[in-house]
Amino acid sequence: MQFIDLTDHRCPLVLVKIKMALKSLHVGEKLHLAIYDHLSRKDVPKFLQQQGHKVQIIINNKDKFEFVVTK
């Protein structure tokens, strides 16, 4: 499983980088992501679920938001 730390980035760059990373994955593969941007915390998981990906939140506190996306 690949880990990508996007805590230094803000939307829309967060979403762009995640989309690019997902393109290289095969169905069933997972991507572990860390983000900080407050807008991304809400919008990105929702968008990924709407696209048919499974999202599992691992950490959700004021300093960090980590989740795993299964393509």
Query: Which stretches are poorly predicted, pLDDT < 50 over at least 5 residues?
Result: none
Task: State the domain count.
Answer: 1
Tell me what portion of residues adopts beta-strand conformation. 25-35%
> The CATH topology, please?
Translation Initiation Factor IF3
Shape: globular
CATH superfamily: TusA-like domain
The level 1 CATH classification is: Alpha Beta
The whole-angstrom Rg is 11 Å
Give the % helix: 25-40%
Keywords: Transferase
Domain UPF0033: 3-71
GO molecular function, one term: transferase activity
Protein name: Sulfurtransferase TusA family protein
What does this protein structure show overall?
Keywords: Transferase. Residues 3-71 form the UPF0033 domain. This is Sulfurtransferase TusA family protein. This protein is an alpha+beta fold and 71 residues long. Helix content is 34%, strand content 34%. The chain is built from 2 helices and 4 strands; from the N terminus they run E-H-E-H-E-E. It has helices at residues 13-23, 38-50, and strands spanning 2-6, 30-35, 54-60, 65-70. The radius of gyration is 11 Å and the shape is globular.
Map the helices and strands.
Blueprint: E1 2-6, H1 13-23, E2 30-35, H2 38-50, E3 54-60, E4 65-70
Parallel strand pairs: 1-2
Antiparallel strand pairs: 2-4, 3-4
Outline of the structure:
The protein has 71 residues and is an alpha+beta fold. The protein has helices at 13-23, 38-50, and strands at residues 2-6, 30-35, 54-60, 65-70.
